[in-house]
Design brief:
heterodimer, A: 364 residues, mainly alpha, two-stranded antiparallel ribbon, B: 80 residues, alpha+beta, five-stranded antiparallel beta sheet, globular
Amino acid sequence: MKKINWLVVIAGAVVGIAAVVLTLLGNPANMGFCIACFLRDIAGGVGLHSAAKVQYIRPEIIGLVLGAFVMALVKGEFRAKGGSSPATRFVLGMVVMIGALVFLGCPLRMVIRLGGGDLNALVGMVGFALGILVGIFFLKKGFSLKRSYTLGNAEGGILPAVLTGLFILAIAVPTLFKASEAGPGSMHAPIIAAFAIALVVGALAQRSRLCMVGGLRDTFMFQDLKLLYGFVAIFVLVLIGNLVQGKFKLGFESQPIAHSAHLWNILGMFLVGWGSVLLGGCPLRQLILAGEGNGDSAVSVFGMIAGAAISHNFGLAGAADAVNEAGEYVVGGIGTAGKVAVVICILVLLAISLLNVQKKEKNA
Amino acid sequence: MSGYIATFHTHLAALLTSRSLSERGVKAQMMPVPRALSSSCGTCVRYEAEEPCFDAMDEDVECVYAIGGTDTYTLLLEKE
């Protein structure tokens, strides 16, 4: 058995370079790529929430899905399938997004933040790993959302089609959509550059099966480090990119679009890790699987978009650390509603985990 | 003795098949599905046996392959 899959390493390296380049071209700091943040921006762009600073139709999401879609078609790997507990997956997508926005980033941005020296991401990674371990515990107990079935090609093409339509409308009639004038949503790379880079990343992610959750899951479950090397490659390339530009800043305080409320960083990523193991992959992976025809993953993505809307409509998302008018450093984090939501989401994951331990395993 | 890989529609089916094979004394190991076999990221069972042991497979088995050289697999069974 090969110990290193170089395609995964190359895909990780390209993602790392892409993240650095996209930040240079205008994306927010330590946010060259972030699936959770960008889905949240799209949710805001189409008016599902009204947080004025995070509204923009991110071409990166569309490019990732279409890159995977085209690559899957070219390689004969496009398979329309679905029917594996779609409603449950929608809820899991929501929970993963709520957790990610408490932390302020998906697992991919967690690695990118680490490459920028943000130690809050290291704290988040502790929660992420713990969440994955809990998910694995339930997998070993017999957790299953049951199998998917082959469906018509039209079903498999739903997310690529919806996003293509959205992209055409966003370019042809931009006034249809909301676009931030300040904050992270207002900071973005040129549309065509962002789309083209994401197409390449999406295609490579499809070939390599790059997955942030899969890296740790396979390491813990099978001592198989192949996917983890992709994770490491992203970190190394982003780290080099930041060091070369003099942007590397090690510490907890004043990190870009991040907070240092440690408990909530841990618990936010705990939700992401646990929920993603139950879904079978991280938010990036869900986009890629949806691109290659997996309707269950498309439903998970729709759930994430709904989760982003819920996060901002009910004030659950984390607020970044900031310096107030008196010049004092104010630790951000989440408010009471966010804290209650995190507890509820943990209970939801527990219920979903317990209720989907299949009987034939319980009796085994 | 030959090497085989069975792929499944669910992780649970892989887990149950791995146990079933082990109970009959077959050396079986769960692992990620090789990329050459699938673009999905599911779990497969790799095992060494005299024959492919189709009767030990869970009902959610997808395919069974005989392992040849590096990244060479011969499809023996495919179930929708």
